[in-house]
Design brief:
single chain, 225 residues, eight-stranded mixed beta sheet, 20% helix
Length: 225
């Protein structure tokens, strides 16, 4: 049976903001190192990153104009600033998609994506996503991950944060969501059930599903290492 070390790790948390400069300043005041990420070609979004020792990062994202074609923009308008999505890092997006589809998950991908850094470096990746917001999306690198996710001293933050220990996700049907995660991650996924809660152990992080039928489904919080 697979162990958590064999599973995918958390890639990043997506945090939508109205004003990127203000969000960067707030995070710096909270003791985080923040770097400008760049712009997404063909889209109106641009971002900044807070990268951690464990390899995960915050993506602070905003839009330069209304973007009604983008789901994340709509969530920002409806729910306000904050955590709106999260991604896992596959070794091969295509392989994970194929395996998950074989287990019955309705997931679409790989889909080409990318970003242009301020220094002109073009980054490429592939993503995959299923239709409900209880699951993360996949984000797998085509260009080296070190180009997308900076390394070095900027990963050591004045506030001591080392990474993301837990992602908390609101779900409307706990058993259905657990089944979807098994379809995505395979039968080796370790699940610890509790009253109205299920903890799923991935590499270096816990995904906590909380039954909140009165709340919108999707990520609702996180805890740091």
């Amino acid at each position: 049976m697979s162990t958590p070390q064999d599973l995918m790790q958390l890639d990043h948390l997506v945090i939508a903001v109205h004003d990127l400069e203000s969000a960067m300043r707030r995070h710096r005041e909270q003791g985080y190192n923040v770097v400008v990420g760049g712009k997404h070609p063909g889209r109106l979004s641009h971002n900044a990153l807070v990268v951690f020792e464990d390899g995960s990062y915050f993506e602070l994202i905003t839009w330069s104009a209304d973007a009604p074609a983008e789901a994340w923009w709509h969530i920002l308008q409806q729910q306000g600033e904050g955590l709106i999505d999260f991604a896992l890092l596959p070794s091969s997006t295509a392989q994970v998609v194929s395996d998950a589809q074989a287990r019955g998950l309705d997931i679409v991908g790989p889909i080409d994506g990318g970003r242009q850094r301020p220094d002109g470096q073009a980054l490429k990746w592939t993503t995959a996503r299923q239709k409900t917001r209880d699951l993360p999306f996949l984000c797998g690198d085509v260009t080296p991950r070190s180009l997308r996710v900076p390394e070095g001293d900027l990963r050591r933050h004045p506030n001591g944060a080392r990474g993301v220990a837990r992602v908390i996700v609101s779900v409307t049907d706990l058993s259905t969501s657990v089944q979807r995660y098994r379809q995505l991650l395979g039968p080796g996924l370790q699940v610890t059930p509790g009253p109205g809660v299920a903890e799923l152990q991935i590499k270096g992080c816990v995904i906590e599903l909380r039954h909140h039928p009165e709340m919108p489904e999707g990520p609702m919080g996180f805890e740091m290492k």
